[in-house]
Fold this sequence. Notes:
Four copies of one chain form a homotetramer.
Chain A: E1 3-13, E2 15-23, E3 26-40, H1 43-47, H2 57-70, H3 76-90, E4 94-104, E5 106-108, E6 127-130, E7 135-142, E8 147-160, E9 185-195, H4 207-224, H5 230-244, E10 248-257, E11 260-262, E12 276-279, E13 284-293
Antiparallel strand pairs in A: 2-3, 3-4, 4-7, 5-6, 7-8, 8-9, 9-10, 10-13, 11-12
Helix pairs in contact in A: 2-3, 4-5
Pathway (chains A, B, C, D): Purine metabolism; urate degradation; (S)-allantoin from urate: step 1/3
Family (chains A, B, C, D): Belongs to the uricase family.
Protein name (chains A, B, C, D): Uricase
Amino acid sequence: MPTILGQNQYGKAENRVVRITRDGDTHHIKDLNVSVALSGDMDDVHYSGSNANVLPTDTTKNTVFAFAKEHGIESAEQFGIHLARHFVTSQEPIKVARIRIQEYSWERIATSDNSSRFIGSDEVNHSFARKGQELRTTQITYDGEKWEIISGLKDLTVMNSTNSEFWGYVKDRYTTLKEAYDRILCTDVAAAWRYNWTSDDDRMPNWEKSYEQAKKHILQAFAETYSLSLQQTLYQMGSRVINSRSEIDEIRFSLPNNHHFLVDLEPFGLKNDNEVYFAADRPYGLIEATVLRDGVEPQIPVDMTNL
Amino acid sequence: MPTILGQNQYGKAENRVVRITRDGDTHHIKDLNVSVALSGDMDDVHYSGSNANVLPTDTTKNTVFAFAKEHGIESAEQFGIHLARHFVTSQEPIKVARIRIQEYSWERIATSDNSSRFIGSDEVNHSFARKGQELRTTQITYDGEKWEIISGLKDLTVMNSTNSEFWGYVKDRYTTLKEAYDRILCTDVAAAWRYNWTSDDDRMPNWEKSYEQAKKHILQAFAETYSLSLQQTLYQMGSRVINSRSEIDEIRFSLPNNHHFLVDLEPFGLKNDNEVYFAADRPYGLIEATVLRDGVEPQIPVDMTNL
Amino acid sequence: MPTILGQNQYGKAENRVVRITRDGDTHHIKDLNVSVALSGDMDDVHYSGSNANVLPTDTTKNTVFAFAKEHGIESAEQFGIHLARHFVTSQEPIKVARIRIQEYSWERIATSDNSSRFIGSDEVNHSFARKGQELRTTQITYDGEKWEIISGLKDLTVMNSTNSEFWGYVKDRYTTLKEAYDRILCTDVAAAWRYNWTSDDDRMPNWEKSYEQAKKHILQAFAETYSLSLQQTLYQMGSRVINSRSEIDEIRFSLPNNHHFLVDLEPFGLKNDNEVYFAADRPYGLIEATVLRDGVEPQIPVDMTNL
Amino acid sequence: MPTILGQNQYGKAENRVVRITRDGDTHHIKDLNVSVALSGDMDDVHYSGSNANVLPTDTTKNTVFAFAKEHGIESAEQFGIHLARHFVTSQEPIKVARIRIQEYSWERIATSDNSSRFIGSDEVNHSFARKGQELRTTQITYDGEKWEIISGLKDLTVMNSTNSEFWGYVKDRYTTLKEAYDRILCTDVAAAWRYNWTSDDDRMPNWEKSYEQAKKHILQAFAETYSLSLQQTLYQMGSRVINSRSEIDEIRFSLPNNHHFLVDLEPFGLKNDNEVYFAADRPYGLIEATVLRDGVEPQIPVDMTNL
């Protein structure tokens, strides 16, 4: 045969599972988008169409929903660990399972000031509004021995309206950009960080707390860095996370530079003292880098944040 | 001529203007997407291509940015009023101006607990994260005499995890739906409300406060209504706004019923006690209605919420 | 009651129905996205939550799929007429039905030059690639007596790389645009046209042929008009359709002016002789107008093309 | 320093360049979306914010537009090769350049049957409609010595309405799927193939012809394969390309299984003889695999098709 099969994987993508947990009248919600990708002894299905080793993608979907009942959803990471372990340990041909999860967060709707006129304030413990800010992500990979957990977030749009400069750069024949000593810095943060937890023998991180802390450090580093370049800000964000969270060894960012151009108002006899900006769509600068704890090997793929 | 020109309008759509206001070290941000549509004596440009009556769309764009400097952006509504008045009063051929604005809201990034290690907590008054929840909207229409202000919001996703039923409906040959006595009710609220302010002689509403209050009443009515149908919930939301806000005479909603189907876990020997749901994409129920103060004439177009 | 109910409608939106018809080994495909909106005696469901007059949206979904079997899908318009008639005539409380349909078109995949090496060229009569160009649309409204059929298309992107000018316009304080004597004209055509067929007593148009012809005339008028303004081009497109198709009385366009800015290459010592353009995203001019057969009343809503 | 910098890259993404070439009255169009990513000696800009080695992303944008003039756009691949070579050879700190390009294709608008009534049929050689089918893609990577060219396409939606089965698969506790002996097979093809051209000393492929042929073989293999699984179809598509095109050594596909579920019409007393389908959105099966010429090393990243 002149052609052969290379890396392959399959599964059901984007299973939208919502889990409600009732604690008396107080409800809790977990809202996930779960994608399953399995690989292993799958030559036959590609070469001949024999499905003898194929657990149907429909079954992987059913498993997601059944596990939401059997195990609950403590965190996206823990849920993905249950799923990945199941597929690898229960099906001999499956050697590796990769679970990707996106999580939507919700907040409770505040009660009415005088809700007694209505149904009673204790009733609104089942009412939620979607926060709509960042999307939380995680990717769990298991090969039967080791775990790799890469969590993160995307679409977290942040802006500094000052304390950002850009000057001292290379000028070549095609350079027309003017140096800037006070500009807006705005980006949609996409970040993916790798936990150093890899073995069932080790103590698991507190996934929920770790996420909240990583996000907090990213936001604060963005806010508190006086920026000479978006690369510098990126490194500060990554460094702050690694230095503050011992359970995280590596973090990668993909940061579009959402350009806000100062509008030239002189033709109208007006002075624009860093007040009026045009928020551009395309093109945009795109700054991507990994920050690592010294001594560790990088594992997060360069295009990881595209997931 | 066998064909004639009907209603027409033109202008620059989606001008992305960001206005920063500095109050000492504390910055404030207004982030708008402004669309201008002008109409008037525009027969010639359609029939012959003569642009003698045409203020270029590029000029309407420039005006948006210049006005952000000249007038500031107190609120989306006030900004739109400045623009609409300008176009109608400064250009004889222009008889009606319609300004549509979408507003993105931002929140401040919280300071570091120990930010003195960094740059100083007073510096973070210029750092923002986009809230990402609903999009605020407004439409200002002016014909030189009367104002019509229709404000609203869209993409505000809300969910009640209980206190929703659906039964007692018509059954025909094509009906298979089972009655539900405890279901999830979830929707993306799109609302448009009309202010009864129409004349420069009358006192203007407080646009910012009015928006916050209308949103609050919508959320609370959603949370506090024990729902027998999404139509009933819609009416309660609308009624609450009209009854609570004397400056609003009419409100229209477009509410998708974001179906959350209880997953059948019986094939796996599991019981699903309102715990595990599949969040479906399409199709979805779509419930739309106007609620009016008794005695007023409706003006909000049926497809208004598509703006 | 201080508030009352205004216009309201409900139904199942975006039912994605695909109908395969087998003519021997040759298959035919119709791929529709069908939205149902019903209105009538629906006060109770809004005021009290009583569903006694409510045919469930789930039933309207079932009806769409059942009708694809019972009636087939001859055309989107004919299919919508079957549905609208059914809802209005079979359910006493329903007074008006509005069916909106989007249609995706497919083309056959060409056979292999030497397909005998494979399975046989006669097999490929069941293989299709989605064309991906414009989306065909229609809206059928029926009140038990009269029909209103508004068909159209959207997302048909067209470009003239010359034969477009823009000059002689109004200049005010905010005008900086330079006159253009040879520019690119590019737009995403959204069009909606109204048929003058309104009664079951009259002979129905050939919906498929009418669509093809209307699209052809729009494209040809775009290509063949030497344009002094996008408004002029719009009017030529509309006029051509009305003059060529007696079954169409009114047409409305919503045409973004997809700006292609000539890039200034002088800083690099290069001359840009209408060769290199930057295709901008936002803002964009937006030109909208209705063209009517002389003497008819306009019925297409101003925001019709938002559907 | 406890943290260090890992892989990093930067540049201007999504430069929308349109190049018109005039051959007498006949115009030709190339419509690209070009993203530049550069890497090299960039430690300082991350650690200290020094931009001394940084060619601004704005300059990379200017270079894209200037090169469209200086070199023209013969093909996306050739254009990317010009750009990558320039960045690596003209800036000492830049060691690797990666250029990603998306190409939109256009077709000419057919002339009017009787266009002499208008402007003359020879005029329409400058009028185009965007085809709207697949997006053509390429990625050019250059390190100063070797080239890696990975081209492909995405969003090419194809359907077989028969000749697809799925049975004989693993059944576990969570399996409920019924075996299918005649189902619809529909997918949105995303493919990325790697050329074995790596050196300036070797003869370059004909990029335009190679693309057309690769697409043709993918389509024909899809149409002509009697499918027992989407994996089998994938392998046939890949194998056909590798076997037919000696310039291509490796190809990777990411194929969603766009489920078309046969609608159960029995509750309505109707029989559904493979006629009426519901086209589902989420979840969907996702089948991904690489097909290689025997003996070559795989280089296309697993997530390559996310570009």
